[in-house]
């Protein structure tokens, strides 16, 4: 078959990769079938293409009344493994985290649904997933740019670190992995399963953007800042609170009432991420937060 014919009449595997790429872009879940558990990686098959759920927990629960006396003495990891073995061949709802057909890499997650209506009613774990979604939403609502939190390293792809913050997915982009000017192999700094301290840079509906560097540098940077100082800073996050700008190791908040007025109610209507602003430091609070004002704009 010629390349032109293959393009016009793709093979089933190509069609599946195209489907996976669509689901990756729109973030909607799709159904796979459990193949096996390898270590803490759950292997899931989607139309003949196998992907992995790393650090798999599957949200498996049980009551003590369901367990035999012997099972009650077993470690939780053993019970989870047994439950997973029993679930081989069953369908599971997943979200695509990475789909690279050239490298044949498919990474999946069960931290998957932003709309409860996306969960089929016949799934027995529907309520549990909804509860987990509610917990993640609450955590996302509580977390603010500039917060320091603990995260578990889930995986490393290229120079990016993927983490879990109490059930919420997060990424540490390459430029926030190491203080070195050049990109450093993250494997030299962290390992999957390791707990690390990170700073929240930005958040969307179901994912956090984080910095490993800033969590380490915060105290030093705060010590160098003084009220009245002016700095050029790039916008890190646009929220209902206002604009968070990056001071190179700390984030400063410019309150919303200083950046919008009248019929414009959200900073995103006037500003964009990575835009450069000139800001004046107003206060460094007891809880290590920086308050600033908008001095000038250099877009």
Automatic annotation (TrEMBL):
Per its UniProt record, what InterPro entries does this chain match? NA-bd_OB-fold, Ribos_protein_bS1-like, S1_domain
A Gene Ontology annotation in the biological process aspect, one of them, is: translation
Asked whether the UniProt record includes Heme among its keywords, one would answer: no
The UniProt entry, under Gene3D superfamilies, shows: Nucleic acid-binding proteins
**Known PROSITE patterns for this protein?**
S1
Is the keyword Cell cycle assigned to this protein?
A: no
S1 motif domain span = 27-111, 146-213, 228-295
What Gene Ontology molecular-function terms does this entry list?
Answer: mRNA binding; structural constituent of ribosome
Q: Name one GO cellular component term.
A: ribonucleoprotein complex
- Pfam family name, one: S1
What SMART domains does the record tag this protein with?
Answer: S1 (SM00316)
Q: Which UniProt keywords apply?
A: Ribonucleoprotein, Ribosomal protein
Judging by the UniProt lineage, the source's domain of life is Bacteria
Q: Which family does it belong to?
A: Belongs to the bacterial ribosomal protein bS1 family.
This chain belongs to the protein called: S1 motif domain-containing protein
Q: Supply the source organism's classification.
A: Bacteria, Bacillati, Chloroflexota, Ktedonobacteria, Ktedonobacterales
